Hints:
Strand content: under 5%
Strand order of the largest sheet: 1-2
Largest sheet: 2 strands, antiparallel
Radius of gyration: 25 Å
Amino acid sequence: MAAETIEAHDSTTAPVKVPALGHLVDDEKRASINEKDDTYVDIDKAPLEEEDEVLDTFTPFPPIKGAPEEERQLTFRALLVGVLLGAVVSASNIYLGLKTSWTFGASLFGSILGFAILKPISKYGPAYLGGGYFGPKENTISQTAATAAGGLGILFIGPIPAMYHLGLLSKNPEEDIGKLITFGLCTAYYGLFFAIALRKFYILKLKLIFPSPTAVAYTIRALHAVGGDAAVNAKKKSICLAAAFGGAMLLRIVSVYAPGILWDHHVFWWLYTWGWQGIIAAENWGWVFEYTPAFLGAGILSGLNASLSFFGGSVLAWAIIGPVTVKYGATFGIPVDEERFPGYISYGSLAASKALTEPSPRYWNLWVGVMLMLCASFAEVAMNGPILYRGLKRAFFETAEKIPATRSYAEKHLTTAEREIEDPAPQSEQVPTWLWSGGVLLSIAVSMIVLALQYHVSPGLTLLAVILAFIFSFIAAQSSGATDINPVSTCGKSSQLVFGGITQGQGIFDAPALNINMTGGIIAAGAASASVDMLGDLRTGFLLAASPYAQFIAQAVGALASVFLCAGLFLLFGKAYPCITDPVLFAAGDCAFQLPSVAAWTAIANAVSKTQFPVPNSAAITALTFGLASIVIVVVKYHWIPEKYHGYVPNLNAVGLAFTLPQTHYSTAMAVGAIASAIWLKKSPKTWEMYAYSLAAGLSAGEGIGGVFNAIFTVAGIGGDKGSAVGCPGFEYCG
């Protein structure tokens, strides 16, 4: 799983335990399994097909016993299937991200479903239709293409729709198709070239564990195991994923025609209409249960800590702090229909015109959530500062060693072991230095031209955005490799603060400042996000001895597909739901998407681009208080709480996200999924290991694709608004 602000794991570089044939699990799940099943051992010595086989996670896995040698890795069938699966994930992520800002990585989905599609084709199909041996290395190439093809969706759930809300793009998204494509080009290939540059350093030298990519490598190896129950188990996992995917997609499609019955249960609204007048307050604050497969699956993927933290944040924001601010006159709601439904009030307005005089609880809480996430993320980076410092220092001197003027100085600071490291990939399978370095220079030139011609941003500021992207790539790679947390959202917000400081210092305000802030932030955050995703794929490929050059080609193909896929999907959603790009329609409150990430990008851009800081004093004070508290909690966690109890410390990024998302049903569903998963794990650890992550991946992707079909049906005039509003608040369609 991958989220814009949250990742599933929070571990260190110390050995962790994984299922013998499967996935990384958190401390609580691990403890439960170890009580009942001794097949969970240290990741450094995890037995696979044979009891006496020992795998070292810092060197490539040995060939699978009994499996033929793979003569080809980079194949047309692998690229095609990978791109198609990436398209599924991309569509799912744009749909889910616009609703919640939560996105999911394509690695696990691509590895399992890629196997499910290509294995039968390879076994039964003729050579000219893709038949022939299909092994773990080719599976890695397919999964790599899937990750790259699904990687740009993050731009279209936050910063790009935020530019529409800020009036920086035209009112008709179809007129901006060229700009949408060039934005993708400016970020996708930085990530690709940066990842190659970082591979040697983070994977071969620092030997960071990259927990999720490592788990994907174990999964692929298990799927291709020879003999015994391996083939049967692989088939079962594939069937489970496909069934979950199909069921979730079907539920999402049919539910929009009767959302008050099949999708949302507005229990408190029902009680209100039956005579309990006071209970309408619970409906006003968004306490609804929704049958969202994606977030039931997210609970399985994320575990109890992140899921319960998310739910706890919802309770704190929308059951305690929100009502308190209204009671004491700090925030205000808007009556929905005073005559028909007394007491029915909306608290979700983001209208900027009343931001200082009559802010809504949503606008007020937004600042608390953003500050909490920023401070918590920076505190996590600071607590891992020594490792990060050593890594950046070595990277700096390695670069300086290649420059004649600084070579002698750099050589004094690098040992022979640091300068020389053996690459297990043959020279013929490595990406030539001229290729990735030339690609970086070409990407810089293209970005300068695009931003200068389309957005009137100076080349100097574009170069600054590229430098920030490279710095953020280092930070995000270090964080993701050591803890499995990719702080992409924090990188984006940080870049906005940097560009805000520059424009304020130069006396640039309002629209010109907003333009610089958003375009620079997109380049910096998008490139950093893509580089870390692709670096994770290279870690998976390293363990499975896949060719780095073949992965590079797969990433290039997938990234190119993603540029056009994401732009097209965004246009589809924008046409079906105009409120995504129209701030007036969105502010009216009648939108199928909550756009929490859009709200965060817009709020920060406005804050650093205005002459008057548009944040109520009470919100600013509360935000600073929560930010300082989050820093204290992180420091205490690392210095005084034993590592084995870290799983009980709240995930502060998840808590902060809950403050930015006024709909509580997502956190409720995640909590339900996580609790059900924990019970399942305790009762039957072997079936949990067999099916849990396949089930979760299928549920997440299935709902997203169902949302795509609903968008198509809406454009065609046969959408859910033609269905029944029975059970919906106000007796109006609620799908």
